[in-house]
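Input.
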Amino acid sequence: MKKVAFYTLGCKLNFSETSTISRLFEEEGYEKVDFENKPDIFVINTCSVTENADKKCRQIVKNAKKISPESFVVIIGCFAQLKPKEISEISGVDAVLGAAEKFKLLEHLKDFEKQQEAIICASEISNATEFNNAYSIADRTRTFLKVQDGCNYGCAFCTIPLARGKSRSDSIENILKSAYEIAATEVKEVVLTGVNIGDFGVQGGRRKERFLELVKALDEVDGVERYRISSIEPNLLNNQIIEFVAQSKRFAPHFHIPLQSGSNKILKLMNRRYLRELYVERVAKIKHEMPDACIGVDVITGFPGETQEDFLDTYNFINELPVSYLHVFTYSERANTHAIEMEGVVPKKERNERSNMLRILSEKKKRAFYHSQVGKEFSVLLENDIKENFIYGFTENYLKVKLPSQYANVNQIKQIRVQSLDKEGVAIGSEVVEA
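Output.
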């Protein structure tokens, strides 16, 4: 029995796909092992959102060959689709599979026999038209369920449409089937993932269903305690979705909404499909319907043309919003994007300085949000995270909470009251015992 190990870089969507591909291996009789357990085959699922992700891929290959020098190394994922030839020339790489080929990895590589040169199975991205169902299982306390793939947007900084193809989705019927399979494993929380999940419903190039219909259908699935909506574009997060989440049985009051810039000038240069005024409306609607909702924000600093004044517009705009945390990305040049041809390149030192300012703002926002929740009651899903006699988990509105470990078990949901915050800003909870 050959041993296979997996390593995933990047987003929740990648984790869902890696987990599904690993199950395909197990169905064929391969033994799934940890990365350090001298596997015969390594499968590395790559990301290419940032320059560091590309460098990280090279480092993982190097580590793999140290662990198991005779192993067969396969690279899949976004980086593999964008730069298959470049990856094939990395020392130690035996095969590279693109977006249309990765789910047929076992068919393409069969016995995993090494060749004189790395095998490249990466067709044009236009061939990636099939939706491949995927969800993670047995890897974490929560499951990542893929509902959508690809993107039809043309943001100036983004390579994802080149790496994953056009927007396409599974059907609600198939997703419900997956949800019931997940529920049978006793997983308590499901995170809906995709590239642009608000655009859910495109099948065979035509819109057949809508995201709100999916959310309503999933809310009726018994056995899943909690759903989270991963990143959703502000122009696709309409009032009907927000209102439904506010009164739903299972959807968490937690939204992650990309902003990218608080300057309308930069949003236009980025080719985003909204202005900052719409973002304000979305945040206000969420807080009106769900005052304790957690709102995360994606923001990019140092985009070409961003002056110091533009950056301060973004900083002040976010500072005034009732949001909970930021994911800060320092702009990095990506081949074949429109942004790489733009004027007004921001020096890397300034990009980094601006990113640091926003990360400090994020900590300030997060701590203020946590402080606002002290004294309130929540349900906490406890994770396999136990340190110094405390077990950690997350509330429905994404507060990280710790409880004394002797009172709780992994994958258990407990009713707690937030008593205070520790020096790291983690919420300290006490169990609420029902009368």
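The longest strand covers residues 377-387.
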